[in-house]
Amino acid sequence: MELVAKGMEVRIGKKEIVKDVSVYVKNKQFVGLIGPNGCGKSTLLKSIYKSLIPQRGAVFLNDVDVLKSPEKKVSQNLGVVGQFNEISFNLSVQQMVMLGRTPHKKMLESDNQTDFAIVEEALARTNLLEYKHRGYLSLSGGEKQRVILARTIAQQPKFMILDEPTNHLDIRYQIEILSIVKQLNIGVLAALHDLEMAAQYCDYLYAMKDGEVYAHGTPKEVLTSATIEALYQIKCQTYTNPVTHGIGFAYGL
Amino acid sequence: MIIIIIYIIIIFREKSEILSNDDLSKLGTGKRYYWFIFLLVGLILLSVVYSVSIGQVNIPFAQSKEIVLHSLTNGMLGSLDKVDNESYLNIILQVRMPRVIYALLIGIGLSLCGTVMQAVVQNPLADPYILGISSGASLGATFAILVGFGSGAYLLQMGVAFGAFAGAMLTSIAVLLLSSIGGKATSVKLVLSGVVIGALCGSFSSLIIYFANNAEGIKTVAFWSMGSLASSSWDRTPIMAIVVLLGAALFLFQHRVLNTMLLGDESAVTLGINLSAYRKFYMMVVALVTGTMVAYSGMIGFVGLVIPHITRGIFGTDHKRLMPGTLLLGGLFMIWADILSRTIIHNVELPIGIITSVIGSPLFIYMIVKRGYNFGG
Question: What is the ipTM of this complex?
């Protein structure tokens, strides 16, 4: 599925957080969104997945007008892994992942064998089968994040939005999460804060600064010393990592 | 009866071992769940019969059973031939039956509203009264008792119930409006609005009491606020039954939305459910059910807070399983609270609100200390 967000403008109070931003994700592309804290990444994503109402702009997922369609219809195609996933009541991991089936169910419909099979598969993909009956609240941050990813996979979306999915996670969990998402082979728009990860996993990057798109292109085109210095207000030298042959970064103030 | 209580304790202990570790797999799963529900229904029926057999006149359990069966099945089961005394029939059917039905309905209603409100505001501390309904109802009742609505015969008779109901509905509408100012009604705004409106109503009640020159009336207000089932009668039962049972029937089928509510607004939207609208609708239903209960029986605290937590400890948080369990457990709890309030001191009827807190608190402490239950978490 292709995602087109055109001319997005979001104001919270009097402050313009997102100013006329357009993002385009081609079929099955993994697109990254980078930029310093407070540049409007999360706000842009929220306005795309209907959590915030943008002042202006249009979002299309193939031919579905996201902003004008009911939540249910959008959620059948669009899965979201958000930043805050704290709950105050304990659900088992299986119940939590089963909630991902909600968009496909009528109010009174029961969960059937197919749903359980889908949940089982999502748990297997995220290496959570052994955690099935554990309480969600007893899990570590990385495990919780995997559960949320499993829930989004069980949703069987054709497009996925991730808002800093690897925040606060150890390197192993970071790689795991992004690899699982990559293997799904669907269109992805992800806000990422780790530039090396972005370079490694993304096909295309949008760099945001002060609510505007500062640069966009392939990771090689965007992740240059000049752009990074302008984005984050730091000194930066890029190099070719001799081990991975990917882009490496050396930072300093 | 003692055997049944011991049995319950054994089950609770057995469950407590399961729950002390982190494995939720045995929480009311499979056949165990239905067995549990069946057990609860059975206990409720037994408790109803026991409840109607005790009081000023003690009626033998076997005879109460015949009378209850006879009246419930319209004469199909149970025979009145075995009943020694004609008056037993009257005592049970006219005096004690409405009361036990009242207790059952209020137990169901309070635990229903408690479970729903805890999901609506995503807060384990929520109870049916959290949206200022309690203080609104108190204000209405205080006004009715100490100031009055005028001299209309009908209003005078219905005064307190009407005042409490009106107060409850007005405050919940005010809370809803206040929390919707400036965008969506989030759970934090709801709780805060509830507290603010509650404080306002509380101070008005105090004002009325301060200026009231009516010691008898002030005593009535105090007694009302402790909760009582003494006003039970057949002619009031239908309204309460309809409101409570319709509410229960509605929420028994809302488990999908209630479950997603636990995740918060943002996650719920991405799962295709716009919580804002559901939240308002649920709160109106809860306000209606709670308002009706408060109007007839005053404030009965603790049931709506504790019963949902105890049920979560047994069946887990999934509302599909939680809801039937919590309704039945709530009903059972109230029947026993009523029995205790009538029997604990001979010939004195304690306000039932005192009893619910007196049994509820230790039960809750036991859960936290012994079973490591950390408020749904």
Answer: 0.89
